[in-house]
Each structure stands twice: as C-alpha cells, then as structure tokens.
Structure prediction request, 175 residues.
Amino acid sequence: MQPSATGFRRWAPWIMFVAGVLAGVGGAALLAPEPPAPLLAPELATDPIKPGPLDRAFAVEIEGRGPDTALAELYRQFEERWEREMEAAAQTLAGRLNAEDRALLVRSQRSWLAYRDTQKALHEMIYTPGARRSLPTMYYAFHARRDMLTVRARALDLRDLQEARQTLILELAMP
Prediction:
C-alpha cells in the first residue's frame, strides 16, 4: 500500500503554520538567549566572577559611549581604580599572614607587577605602533581596555585569595 499524497496535502497548511510559528515569533521566544545582567558592560556580562561595585560603576559610565579617545580615558580611569582595589586587597591579605607567607605574597606581587608591565608594553606595541602610521581612535580604547582588564583580573584574584584565606581560618577554628 502506497501512502496517499492527498493526506499530505490536507495536513500541509497546518504543518506549514506550526513550522512558521516555531521558526518565527514562537520559536524565537523559546530559543532566545537569556539577556545579560542589567547594568553590566558587554565584556563583563559573560564573566564568571560575580560583578562588584567597580564593575557596576563601570557599566553605568560606559553606557552609550563609542570606541573613541573618551572611552579610552574611561578605561584608564577604571584601571587606576582597579589598581587601588588590587593594592588594598594585597594589603589586607598581607595583614592576615605570618612573616614567611607575607614574603611569598610580596614576591608574587612583584612578579605580577613585572608581568603587568610586560603586558602593557605588548599592548603598546600592538595597538599604538608609534609614528609609523596614524591609527583610528578605536584602537586607543582597545589598548586601554586590555590594560584595565589585566589589572582587574589581579585585583579580583587577590580578593578571592583573601576570602579563601578568611574562610579557611574560620573553618579551622570550628570544633
């Protein structure tokens, strides 16, 4: 027995309707990705680290800005703020360590500062090649963004280490 072509013709409009709904508005609603967290800059929206006060302040400031020298200046300002956050986290952590562990933290921080300076030199070489040619201003923002994210990562790392140390001390103190 062969399948009837008339049966398909009878159901074809309904099949096309359902397919259209799923592919159109209905399907888009089902398949739409979850929107990013409110007031979060695009590069931080997918960051697995919970955004803190500086991230939220940055998201407010960056809203509506384009890739130009003003945006680069904003990245530089927030790099300085992350630098202060990093130094505060390092000081707090150092205050909770014995002399031997504090010396290890100081060596780690010195090594990281050398790394940061090398990264800045690399970013400088890539994004601002000097007088060889004039670059569009968006590259200044790219350069500043890279520098800010490098410092932000270290500040968050030190903050996490500080919290881990505190949690461990509390757990060891429990009977």
The longest helix spans residues 138-173.
